TrEMBL record:
It comes from Clostridium polyendosporum. Catalyzes the phosphorolysis of diverse nucleosides, yielding D-ribose 1-phosphate and the respective free bases. Can use uridine, adenosine, guanosine, cytidine, thymidine, inosine and xanthosine as substrates. Also catalyzes the reverse reactions. The lineage of its organism: Bacteria, Bacillati, Bacillota, Clostridia, Eubacteriales. One of its GO terms (cellular component) is cytosol. Signal peptide: none annotated. Pfam families: Ppnp (PF06865). Belongs to the nucleoside phosphorylase PpnP family. Its EC number is 2.4.2.1, 2.4.2.2. HAMAP family: Nucleos_phosphorylase_PpnP. This is Pyrimidine/purine nucleoside phosphorylase.
Amino acid sequence: MQQFEKVTIIKKANVYFDGKVTSRTVLFEDGEKKTLGIMMPGEYEFGTGKKEIMEIMAGNLDVLLPGSNEWVTITGGQSFEVPANSSFKLVVKELTDYCCSYLD
């Protein structure tokens, strides 16, 4: 999906890691929530409350998912899933554009 229809966008930015990761929240009529953001190169660890699907629109990163000892390379056009109530690590190698979907 290249665009979203009939949404509400929260103007206030979500800013993490001294501005190296930013996003905007998109709310859908059916209650679905996504964030659209940019990650600068660096190493990050995120925690989840809900299950997440991270869709990488452009860029290049390595992810270490919960319960795994192996880093996986993800590039633009690929995605990965993170279980609820867990944490995951990223090594972002280049400017990365992403869309995160939060699932119940």
